[in-house]
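re the bet — no i am not wrong, look at it urself. input seq straight from the record:
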Amino acid sequence: MTSDRTHDEIRSLLAAAALQTLEGDDLAIVSEHVAGCDECGQILSEQSTVVTHLLQLLADEPFDRARSVAIRARLLARATAAPHASLRRVAERWAGWGVAASLTGFLLMHHGFHHPIAYGWIVAGSAIFVSVILAGVVLAQRIQLKTLRHHQEDAQHSSV
C-alpha cells in the first residue's frame, strides 16, 4: 500500500497509533511507514512505552465509557499540540514587549534619518531591532532545549 501522505502527516498519527486508536487505512499507512523510518519507529516505541506505563498505573476497575472517551480525546489533543503549546505561551507573553521594542527601534531610526547629525539614533534603533530578533531566537532555542531535555529524561526513566 502506497501513501501520498507526507512524513509530517504520518508523524502526527503516531500518538493515535501508540494509543491504539487507529483503524483501517490509517493504521496500515502508519505501520508501513514505521517499518521503513527509524525516526518514526523510535517515536512510536517511546510513546507506546509511555502508554504502557500509564496503563500499569491505572486502577484495575474499568472506566465509565464516556469518561474513557473523554480522556482519550484529551490525550490525543495534548499529544498533537504539545510541541507548539509552550512556544505559543512564550509568544503571547512577550509579544507586547517585542512590538514595543520594535516600534521604539523604528522610531529611533526614523528620528535619525530626519536629523542627520544624530546618526547615533540610527545605530541605537538598529541595535534595538537586532536585539529583539536575537532575543526571539534565544527564547526559541531555550524552548527546544527544554523539550529535548524532557524527552531525554523520559527516555532515561523508561529504560530504568
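see?? The mean pLDDT is 76. told u. also Helices lie at 7-12, 14-18, 24-36, 38-57, 65-114, 119-159. so pay up
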